[in-house]
TrEMBL record:
One of its GO terms (biological process) is acetyl-CoA biosynthetic process. Belongs to the ATP-dependent AMP-binding enzyme family. Residues 472-550 form the AMP-binding enzyme C-terminal domain. One of its GO terms (cellular component) is cytosol. It comes from Planifilum fulgidum. The lineage of its organism: Bacteria, Bacillati, Bacillota, Bacilli, Bacillales. InterPro entries: AMP-bd_C (IPR025110), AMP-bd_C_sf (IPR045851), AMP-binding_CS (IPR020845), AMP-dep_synth/lig_dom (IPR000873), ANL_N_sf (IPR042099). This is acetate--CoA ligase. Gene3D superfamilies: 3.30.300.30, N-terminal domain of ligase-like. Keywords: Acetylation, ATP-binding, Ligase, Nucleotide-binding. Residues 52-421 form the AMP-dependent synthetase/ligase domain.
Length: 573
């Protein structure tokens, strides 16, 4: 990786003026004062996200712009308050109370958001499930969480094995219902109409459970990560300093609420900051996405490397068809952001793409590139104020710059997970070194305190005595004009320990050939290092990915070694 490349400040309107100074002076306690519960001690995150604004000058401000192929709607903060209140009342009428798990298995539509907020308002613990899950994935999660209620559509209901789920008592259906509803089934729209728009909010403690998120399943069976209301402190402040949200912003986070980015930054961060939120239903499509940016005049755009790589694949010409002049801040999370993508973004959008790092378990952003800071392409940035990050060896000793080790965070921080649902042993593993949270990612730090992602700990390759992070090789590979995406694994080798094997999907217009393999090998050898060049290359039409768009290296490895592939519930079709 090139540590000397820098992209200087280009983003306007920074909430944070100076990173070092902010880092030095920051105290989470000051953030708490923003919220009403600072005085009362009782709290509800949905109240802080919606009602607080509905009771202020922002009451008629647009909170949500929604669109998909068939619908186009908008809701003010006041309307969001009333809709979520109604849903809270619907749940209460069914006898659902504080602490009960309410799951939502739905496409991204306004009803999903009303349900999500309404359930939190009555103190229930919400579990959002990605709409593309098939039956086994749905069963696993509803069984593990013992959900008592489910909000879903008549179509998706076919994938819910209701008979096998004794805890599941109530099913609320959103959409056209044919025939009579059996016992325990309810019509969302009818119930909403009948419910009052006034709701007595359930005031809870900051440490009370709010949300269960199952992880992406990149490395194994997804874990049920429990978050509490207190996480809002981090959502709010990272929204301010990382997303750089300001009063007039139009914000679009492309993630589905089935993944943590779609809740922490698709719901809480924008609304806690009182900002207008754009939600687009439906699947990825370059034209639709650019049209969305243009139509709403999106100013802050939060997406993922896989999307940026696909947009890069769609080329520059298409960008010129749209007016993206209002866009001022672009961010990325979920996977390593290849330097090539950052350079491309700068050229084509005229903006930097700001990488940031966090995970389901951390609940919020921990390491980031801030608008006021120089970007080093390939680095995820520097720790958020109030967060102490370090690279540790297996014993927990802090390592000096440029040494690869465990990326670890000093405990605690406001949005840290409070449990892995029904799996204490798993939870404790993250905290096995006293005082630290061990992320499971490997990284190193440079002399300026920037962190550089290397790979999942299990993914690090040991070849001829050298430790190679797959990300660095993949990033070099995608610089080659023929390569659209690449996944790199270590393949056992009697001489070298492991050799590097790359799975590559080609860009349109390129055909697999032996010459191309050689050319790509030479390209990495010259551009990176001989030991890091892939001795084996396999071309594939598509790489195995999670539904949240991450390359599943464990699946590539299993294929390669002829081993079982493990839990595939989160894999794309
Ligand atoms: P599972 O834990 O089930 O294997 P997962 O780790 O992919 O799945 P998430 O919590 O959605 O589930 O993803 C967090 C992980 O994504 C991080 O641990 C890291 O490996 C990767 N990641 C997130 N952001 C970045 C980033 N900016 N750069 C590199 N990797 C990132
Ligand atoms: Mg993980």
């Amino acid at each position: 990786m090139d540590h000397s490349e820098r992209i200087k400040v280009m983003t306007t309107g920074n909430n944070m003026k100076d990173y070092e100074e902010t880092y030095r002076n920051f105290d989470w306690k000051d953030v708490e004062k923003v919220f009403s519960w600072y005085e009362t001690g009782k709290v509800n995150a949905a109240y802080e996200a919606i009602d607080r604004h509905a009771e202020s000058d922002r009451r008629d401000k647009i909170a949500l712009y929604y669109s998909d192929a068939n619908r186009e709607e908008q809701y003010t903060f006041l309307e969001m308050k009333e809709k979520s209140n109604r849903f809270g009342n619907v749940l209460r009428k069914l006898g659902i109370k504080k602490g009960d798990r309410v799951f939502i298995f739905m496409p991204r539509t306004p009803e999903l958001y009303f349900s999500f907020l309404g359930a939190i308002k009555i103190g229930a613990v919400v579990g959002p499930l990605f709409e593309a899950f098939m039956e086994a994935a749905v069963r696993d999660r509803l069984e593990n969480s013992e959900a008592v209620a489910l909000v879903t559509t008549p179509q998706l209901l076919e994938r819910v094995p209701v008979k096998d789920l004794p805890a599941l008592k109530h099913i609320i259906l959103v959409g056209e219902i044919e025939g009579e509803l059996g016992e325990g089934y309810y019509d969302f729209h009818k119930e909403m109409e009948a419910a009052s728009p006034e709701l007595e909010i359930e005031w809870v403690d900051r440490e009370d459970p709010m949300l269960i998120h199952y992880t992406s399943g990149s490395t194994g069976k997804p874990k049920g990560v429990l978050h509490v209301h207190n996480a809002m402190i981090q959502h709010y402040q990272t929204g301010k300093w990382v997303l750089d949200l300001q009063e007039d912003d139009i914000y679009w986070c492309t993630a589905d609420p089935g993944w943590v980015t779609g809740t922490s930054y698709g719901i809480f961060a924008p609304w806690l900051n009182g900002v207008t939120n754009v939600i687009r239903g439906g699947r990825f499509n370059p034209d639709d996405w650019y049209r969305t940016l243009e139509k709403y005049g999106v100013t802050v755009w939060y997406s993922a490397p896989t999307a940026f790589r696909m947009l890069m694949g769609a080329g520059e010409e298409i960008v010129k068809k749209y007016d993206l002049s209002r866009l001022r801040h672009i961010l990325s999370v979920g996977e390593p952001l290849n330097p090539e993508v950052v350079r491309w973004g700068l050229k084509v959008y005229g903006r930097r793409i700001h990488d940031n790092w966090w995970m389901t378990e951390t609940g919020g952003i921990l390491i980031a590139n801030y608008p006021c800071m120089e970007i080093k392409p390939g680095s995820m940035g520097r720790p958020f104020p109030g967060i102490q990050a370090a690279i540790l060896d297996d014993q927990g000793n802090e390592l000096p710059p440029y040494q690869m080790g465990h990326l670890a965070i000093r405990t605690p921080w406001p949005s840290m997970m409070r449990a892995i649902w029904k799996n204490k042993a798993k939870y404790d593993e993250y905290f096995r070194i006293p005082g630290w949270y061990i992320s499971g990612d490997s990284a190193y730090m440079d002399e300026d305190g920037y962190f550089w992602f290397q790979g999942r700990l299990d993914d690090v390759i040991n070849t001829s005595g050298e430790r190679v992070g797959p990300f660095e090789v993949e990033s070099k590979l995608v610089e080659h004009p023929a390569v659209a995406e690449a996944g790199v694994i270590g393949k056992p080798d009697p001489v070298r320990g492991e050799i590097i094997k790359a799975f590559i999907s080609l860009r349109a217009g390129y055909e697999p050939s032996e010459e191309l393999k050689k050319e790509i090998y030479e390209f990495v050898k010259k551009g990176l290092a001989a030991h890091a060049a892939p001795r084996e290359i396999e071309f594939r039409d598509k790489l195995p990915k999670t539904r949240s768009g991450k390359i599943m290296r464990r699946v590539l490895k299993a294929w390669e070694l002829g081993l079982p592939t493990g839990d595939l519930s989160t894999m794309e079709d």
